[in-house]
Specification:
alpha/beta, 21% helix
Length: 178
């Protein structure tokens, strides 16, 4: 046996050839049966239940997804402590998104990070994050650590109430021509 004679039989399996005569077993109608919608090309009957009201229409609508939401990657203090104990994060320097990413606590360096207070730590943490819960701030300050907040990239405009919007869009009187 030599390396150049080894063959993986599974990788060279031939594809099924349809429409190649009676003897092949998939000749004539190519395994699609006779007539009807499913034998034609370009058919997708997903969710169709033979005329019965489909499940996705029987169930009520629920909630909505806010297009303007800000999503945060959440990190618990216990997870940070675990990463420090495993020497994935250096507790003596300021911990940023890059450190969380390299430790595997977040999946993307460019996401907004929020620290939550689940777990315990004995290290004085210096964090630079986007947001932190009250319990996390209390835990960090108790251990003589501090939290710095990142500058917000997006300038959020002043929120306008519905009444103000209506006042701004009211029709101005039109001057009549003489």
């Amino acid at each position: 046996m030599k390396l150049n004679t080894l063959v993986d039989k599974a990788s060279i399996k031939k594809p099924k050839r349809v429409g190649r005569g009676i003897g092949s077993g998939t000749g004539k109608t190519s395994g699609a049966g006779h007539k009807g919608q499913k034998s034609r090309s370009g058919v997708a009957i997903k969710g169709f239940e033979g005329g019965q009201m489909p499940l996705h229409r029987r169930l009520p609508k629920r909630g909505f997804k806010n297009r303007f939401r800000t999503e945060y990657s959440v990190i618990n203090i216990g997870d940070i402590d675990k990463a420090i104990n495993n020497k994935k994060i250096d507790a003596k320097k300021t911990i940023t998104n890059e450190d969380f990413f390299s430790a595997g606590l977040i999946r993307n360096k460019n996401v907004l990070v929020k620290i939550l207070g689940k777990g315990k730590t004995n290290h004085p943490l210096n964090l630079k994050v986007d947001k932190a819960s009250k319990s996390a701030i209390k835990l960090i300050s108790d251990n003589k650590g501090k939290i710095d907040y990142n500058e917000k990239v997006q300038d959020t405009d002043k929120k306008i109430s519905k009444e103000e919007k209506v006042k701004n869009t009211e029709k101005k009187p039109v001057k009549k021509k003489k």
